[in-house]
Design brief:
Blueprint (H helix, E strand, L loop, with lengths): L2 E4 L11 E3 L6 E2 L3 E4 L4 E4 L4 E2 L12 E5 L5 E4 L4 E2 L4 E4 L2 E4 L4 E2 L4 E3 L20 E3 L4 E2 L4 E2 L4 E2 L4 E2 L4 E2 L7 E4 L4 E5 L8
Amino acid sequence: RNKLFFYIKNYLLIRKGLLVCDLKSLYIFQSVYLYRHGGNYTFGNHVQFGYYIGGRYKKGYCELQARSDEAEIIIKDYSAINNNFLAIACKKIEIGEHCRIGAHCEIMDFDAHNVNPELRSKMGKVKEVIIGNNVWIGNNVMILSGVSIGNHSIIAAGAVVTEPIPDNVIAGGVPAKVIKKIGSDNCSV
């Protein structure tokens, strides 16, 4: 009951918070759920959710949750998000222009629980997540609070990103580390 469902061909409804977008410029290939209690959502021009041949197993939808009144999720122009995506913001998640995000990715700008055992039932730290322009994120990637990913970088499939990633690099692993610079002798990209 805390989710707001919209599928462009059927209907659009938002009761609390704000949705800013040009509905005619969104490309929706998979159902999208917006958490309706809380913050704001801003989608740029030509933003794509899901991919019609991208696989609909697991949950089968994209879900965005701006959980507090001041929370915001921003997805800028020409970015494409594959199937089964989850973004949860208590403060801010921003995805730049021309980004490509693979299937089954998750982005959270907060630690779900406090590290201190006596405060474990309380939320941990909240730090915004900023993804630069022209970033390619592979399938099954998790991006955690306080992360920034630089322009033109690539995050390898299955990575867990816990620290900032600079511009023009390929990063991967658990936790994600820089593997090589894009354009270096060892990389044909």
